[in-house]
Amino acid sequence: MHITQLNRECLLHLFSFLDKNSRKNLAKTCHKLLEVFQDPLLWSLLNFHSPVELKKDNFLLGPALKHLSICWYSERVKVCNIEDWMKNSFQKDFCKRHENTVSDFLLDVCNRCPNLLSLTLSGCGHVTDDCILQLLKNCPHLKSLKLENCVRITDHTLQAVTLHGASLRTLHVDFCRNVTQAGLERVREKCPSIMLRAEKSANMIPDSKPEKKLMLQKASRKLVQL
């Protein structure tokens, strides 16, 4: 029996065991397999290991997407996680390209994936508060938001959670050094049902110039006391 003689359900099951590249390569062999590749039911889970992968045409975004993760474990991630004021012009240009790639992709997710249930971003130093805000607004069913080593994430994201994260049950902001204890306490107060974790975050050095570090730390302590 030839593979194309299998029914649609069997082909979808077969495709589900393949990675994105293998699915794309198989889809190139005939029109019937291309139709299976383009079936939204096949794309309920997406994992990416580099922002570069977001530019490929080996996946499909749609309402069926429930779980999304972008986990970038590379030596180059260190560049994007350097404080902005310490970057040279080459590093800033390098990070700007990644920022545009990720922000454009997440905008597509906002527009096409309203049923997203979980989002994990690790090592994405170019993800901004605005990206997370738009996701929370456009993906009202989001239950799990896990952010790790996302240095541009600040208390604005925590505030967005309190305003637009009605369905959220899990929030991780590990190694996000620009969130504060005051912001975390605000989430705990306004959203007690959320399981909040912030390992190595609020007590880390903020992403600011050295002369402002002491000022920010004092301001954070005052807010906590209030």
Automatic annotation (TrEMBL):
Domain of life (superkingdom): Eukaryota
SUPFAM superfamilies noted in UniProt: F-box domain (SSF81383), RNI-like (SSF52047)
Pfam families: F-box-like
Domain F-box: start-end pairs: 9-46
The keyword Iron-sulfur belongs to this UniProt entry's keyword annotation: no
Keyword annotations: Ubl conjugation pathway
Record keyword Membrane present: no
Alphabetical list of InterPro entries matching this protein: F-box-like_dom_sf (IPR036047), F-box_dom (IPR001810), F-box_LRR-repeat (IPR050648), Leu-rich_rpt_Cys-con_subtyp (IPR006553), LRR_dom_sf (IPR032675)
GO cellular component: cytoplasm
PANTHER family, per the entry: FI18408P1, MITOCHONDRIAL ATP SYNTHASE COUPLING FACTOR B
Name of the protein: FXL22 protein
Organism of origin: Poecile atricapillus
